Amino acid sequence: MAAVTVEKLTFSYPQRETPALRQVSLSVEEGEFLVLCGKSGCGKTTLLRHLKPALTPHGERTGEIALFGRPLSSLSAREQAARIGFVLQNPDNQLVTDKVWHELAFGLESLGMHPDVIRLRVAEMASFFGIGPWFHKNVSDLSGGQKQLLNLASIMAMQPELLLLDEPTSQLDPIAAAEFLQTVRKINRELGVAVLLTEHRLEEAVPMADRVVVMEEGAILVDGPPREAGERLRERGHGLFSSMPAPLQIGAALHAPSPCPLTVREGRRFLSGLFAGRPPEIVQLQEPAAQKKGGKAAVRLKDVWFRYEKNGPDVVKDLSLTVEEGSLFAVMGQNGAGKTTFLTLLTGQNRPVRGKVWVLDQEVGRYKGGALFRRCLAMLPQNPQALFVKKTIREDLMEMLREVPQRQAEERLLQTARLTRIEGLLDVHPYDVSGGEQQRAALAKVLLLEPKVLLLDEPTKGLDNQYKEILGGILKDLCRQGATVLLVSHDIEFCARYADQCALFFDGTIVSRGEPRVFFSGNRFYTTAANRMARHLFRQAVTNEEVIALCRKNGVSPCEPC
Questions:
Q1: Residues 6+ apart with CB under 8 A from 197
Q2: What whole-number distance in Å separates Cα of residue 244 and Cα of residue 96?
Q3: 213, 244, 275: which is the final residue of a domain?
Q4: What is the pLDDT of residues 375-394, one digit of tens each?
Q5: Is residue 102's pLDDT more than 90?
Q6: Which of 4, 9, 224, 546 could bond to 24 as cystine, CB 3.0-4.6 Å?
Q7: Which helix (H) or strand (E) holds 61?
Q8: Is residue 256 scored above 90 in pLDDT?
Q9: DSSP state, residue 57
Q10: CATH code of residue 178
Q11: Inside any domain, residue 376
Q12: What mean pLDDT comes out for the span 160-166?
């Protein structure tokens, strides 16, 4: 029996000419794991929110939605809360209490359950999710991964029959994201809960799925098993194929025989089969480019320590770092390692307890009256909504151009809007667009400042792979023009493809840095899927393109397409 059925659902937001959803028909069977993907703004989140009445957006709607054969509208508020679980993108937006144990009990208390039942379910969830060691902690003391796991456990305590997850790993580091998704898969397999997951990071999610549904412009474009969905995207020449797992992309490029590899393990076997009995002669494309020495420093930190409270723990510890002008420097690391705090030291939002911080040859503390942010330094925060203060995106962007003549300001605004692909969103309220579209609008606002040093905190969050390629091109162009880009990111593939230097932040300081090929090939877990797939054959191949190129240089002949 279908857990949820959607029939000919059409929906339009107020004052929007184009429908967000167009004649969407979809069913998720009981116990099925379905991954929903598509470009930013294609309607994924809108569709998901229609399946949870308490979160349904305001607008005009036609069509029917049923839960286990019953119209969704006929369910009481209590039934909706208990039977349909929803995990939001931002962990902090869903937490409502101060203690872990209270968060686990909150939903059950709201449903009016008996204290004995609450105690039993809380204990069971804490055991199932491994929450015991931090059961009595303050929620504010948890890492991002722990917070999202707590959200999931709190929902599962109510024993839902349908679990909806809206990009739940977008703010998690790669290891925490993989662990979270494995937990979701465990819930699906062992408890039989139907799962509908929207994601942009498909490397881990797609191989777990029973079905993959691809949306485009509010309608369903592709619906089928993972390999079949990937193949249909490839046949169409659709840009979203570049978001599919690396083994699938590499296998398709090398015309792997059917079935095409989908996981890293299958990909390793496929590559090993290509070179069975004859190891590759060419194992490296070229030596990594030597890092330029002696260039002018755009950002410099020396022996920096920082803590938030006088007697609190050190968040940044003995950090020394130099980032040269014109470079794209990427910082990675687990949630809670201190990466965002490190950026706030560069903006002057926080001052170091010890040590010094320079931006463009001047100590940050010596910039007065906002001089640091006048065509000098700008920052895109992790939450793009923090930058929006006006009623439309156009007004928000024009705020950056108050001192520019009107005609020139309008030209620059339109040029930047085209660059960031938000031309059709200028007259929309910034809160009425998708998370990826908000990210692009926030980037446009920051770019209008024409900074010499650009700080980006999770800039690829909520973006599809097609726009990531555009973003990578924008950032590289800025660097070629002399700007310096320093980004904090959990997106390993993006950093491997576009960064000049990568660094690993751990326990308050940088423990490793290097050119992407050297950096990622030296890691076992903080590396790309392509590298894990091919490292037994090739040295320092970290992107899909590098693996494919090395295979072809070694004379791999095409087989039948998968």
A1: 33, 34, 35, 36, 164, 165, 168, 184, 205, 209
A2: 35
A3: 244
A4: 899 999 988 888 999 999 99
A5: yes
A6: 9
A7: strand 60-67
A8: no
A9: P
A10: 3.40.50.300
A11: yes
A12: 95
